[in-house]
Write the structure tokens for this entry.
Amino acid sequence: MQITFIGEKTINISEGQSILSASLDAGIPHFHACGGNGKCSTCRVLILEGLENLSAINKKEAFLRSKIPFPQRVRLACQSFIEKGDITIERIIKDELDFSLFLNDDQLEKKNQQLGVEKELVLFFLDIKNFTPFVDSYLPFDVIHVVRRLFFIFHNVINKLKGRIVETAGDGLYAVFGFDSTIKEAADFAIEASKQIVIELDELNEHYLQKYFFISFEVGIGIHLGKVIVGKIRIADKNTESIMGLAVNVASRLQAVTRELDNNILISEELARHSSIRFPTPGRTINLKGINQEVTVHLMGKPFK
């Protein structure tokens, strides 16, 4: 039995061998980010001829199809086997542009390197309150000077507790915990980071910002735990780490309602369950904008001034 890869080559395939395995044996750089376990879809192929010659969709492929609506003629190469006759297919992710969107020049030869993986992480969003009036009222030098002082605190605390800042904006940041620790440690580290940031910010306000700039700042922090997709996105000539998923949105929305709930640190019940910290009172169930299900939160901080 044979497989013809359009624009590439025709290869033989043995009985019981998957399309992915046969293509790799033949030296075709067939992407398979999850290792051929039916979890990522990067090995999928378009069946041009011989669809009827393939094995039926198995449980792994069916599960992925329940999440991603593939056309009928698109199959996972790692979960598809030829049962009779020959087939003609085309790989979907196959050229240098596809790879270069994710990899740098040194990595282009490693075409089976993972693009994205699913991980359970702690998501940490912080917003500086009343930041816009400050920017509008002070000179550019003063604004940048103060912002540097603020982010110096944020970065040092998060980094010390094994967190990683993913994105920053003028008035806030987005960080994750769990890359270099267990999920239980990550939950504890994120909670501790929020407390330390508030303490150090209060000290900066009292001993520096109020004295020399006649201002003080507060922060709102939202923390959640959940599964996200982690991968590299190539923009121009630089790889940027991207972390996406519903859990990210939940953490961001929690931060957004800190003022509404009048508490500067909100953590989700999901994070509380994984933490070693015990909470004396039950959480509060709320609705978050753009999130279909209700979310239970714990108010870990203090009211805004």
User: Anything to note?
Assistant: The radius of gyration is 25 Å. Residues 183-212 form the longest helix (30 residues).
